[in-house]
Amino acid sequence: MDNLVINLLDNGVINLKVLNNYDDNNRISIVKNKKVLKSFEVSNLKTVVEYEVDAENVLVINPDPLELKVHSKKYKNDIFATKLDFIFETEKETGLRFDYNEDEIVLGLGQDHMANLDNRNVQRVAWHQCNAYDRANNCTVPFYLSSRGYGFL
After folding, report:
1. What is the dihedral of CA 47, 53, 56, 57, to 10 degrees?
2. Rounded to an integer, what distance in angstroms lies between the CA atom of residue 60 and that of residue 133?
3. Which residues form the Glycoside hydrolase family 31 N-terminal domain (predicted)?
C-alpha cells in the first residue's frame, strides 16, 4: 500500500481511500453531495490524531503502527477498532481486517442463499458481479452493517 487517505464527511461518514501507484483521477463514488470536513494522509501524520466525527464520536488515528478507532464519548468505549496491519494487499486484491465486540451483531455483504445472516467469525469475499441481461442472476450490494451503529459500503 502506498498511502491511505481518510476523509471525514458530513453526517458522520468516514471515507477510506487506499492510493496505489496507478492514476486514479476518474474516481467513482456512491457517496454523493457530501462535504469533506477534514482529510488526513496517513503518511503525513507523525503522532496520534483525534478528530470529532460528530457530537458523540471521536476518530482516533495512530499512524505507527497504523490503527483506527471510533470512540464513543457517551458510552466511553470503542465502537469500531482495526487490527494491526488491518489493510492488506495481494497481487489481486486489497482487504481489511478489524475486530468486533462480543455482543455485536454483524449483517450484510450480500446474499447467502443458505440463509445464514450472521457473519461473525466468517471470512467473506465481497465483490459485485452482475449481468444486467440475466434476470435470474443474484446481484448483491456488498454492504456490512453492525449493531453498534457503523457500516461499510
Report:
1. -40
2. 45
3. 4-152
